[in-house]
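User: Hello! My lab partner asked me to get a predicted holo structure for this protein. The small molecule is NAP, SMILES included with the sequence. Please write out the structure tokens.
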Amino acid sequence: MLREMVLSFIGSGNMAEAMIRGLIARQLMPPENIVAAGPRRERGRELARQYHVRWTQDNSAAAREADILVLSVKPQVLPKVWPEIKSYLKEELLVISIVAGARISTLSQNTGRTQIVRAMPNTPGQIGKGMTVWTATDAVPSVRRTQANAILGALGEEIFVGDESYLDMATALSGTGPAYVFLFMEAMIDAGVHMGFSRHVAEKLVLQTIEGSVAIARESKRHPAVLRNRVTSPGGTSAEALYQLEKGGLRTVVSKAIWAAYQRSKLLGDMSEGKKA
Ligand SMILES: NC(=O)c1ccc[n+]([C@@H]2O[C@H](COP(=O)([O-])OP(=O)(O)OC[C@H]3O[C@@H](n4cnc5c(N)ncnc54)[C@H](OP(=O)(O)O)[C@@H]3O)[C@@H](O)[C@H]2O)c1
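Assistant: Hello! Below are the structure tokens for the protein in complex with NAP.
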């Protein structure tokens, strides 16, 4: 399905490497059909050495060859990239963007192409444990959707949504989500150290507890409140700790934080289209 295609990455950083790694590990594409474009020669050589992909410092050359073009630069770099690629794109090109905030209208206008996939991955994608939410324009035929699905699946789990507005919501929930989890993790580890554990032991306890809790939630398929009630005995330690968490407004602050991230994501999208904040 993908084997006959040339897939070019404009921007060969962490996320591009994660996709390349996944594509090759799953034998979805031969490495010689993958082109990684980026400004640093050492980076290109490193990718070529590790994954046997082709690399170039010339975005136009990478774009010219592509049947599928993945835009994987930072948002502020996109305006520099457009003039370098626009006149070289194939007519039937599929554009896949993982650039945070870049809207389909912007992508379509600046590439002059109609087959556009917009995706929001997250950091665990770098080790194949990501959650990617994606959508596609109506012009993307089903065979191309299947290809996009496979490419994004190289980062871990993926889910298709029928409306672009879900991308801003996904940015706030799963895209930014690892930051919330890391903060909670850090707070638990620090509390462990406060009580007297060494940092090393506190880290082990917290990481395994979070991993185990996720596993049990997945396996049991129970509502989190049911799982929480099961470990909360009357007058016990969980009841006391949960009382303090609720009193401190944990649930409200989490909800407010995610809502704020959602509003921020929409604003950044507006700003990337040149609208004033
Ligand atoms: N990381 C995540 O978890 C995550 C999650 C969701 C969305 N995203 C989105 O994914 C995109 C890539 O993120 P990332 O974490 O992979 O960033 P990254 O590691 O910084 O990768 C960006 C790459 O683009 C290269 N670059 C810079 N200027 C360029 C140019 N003019 N032409 C071509 N390449 C250029 C950079 O090269 P140098 O290193 O030499 O500057 C770098 O290798 C971003 O738009 C981000 O919003 C990332």
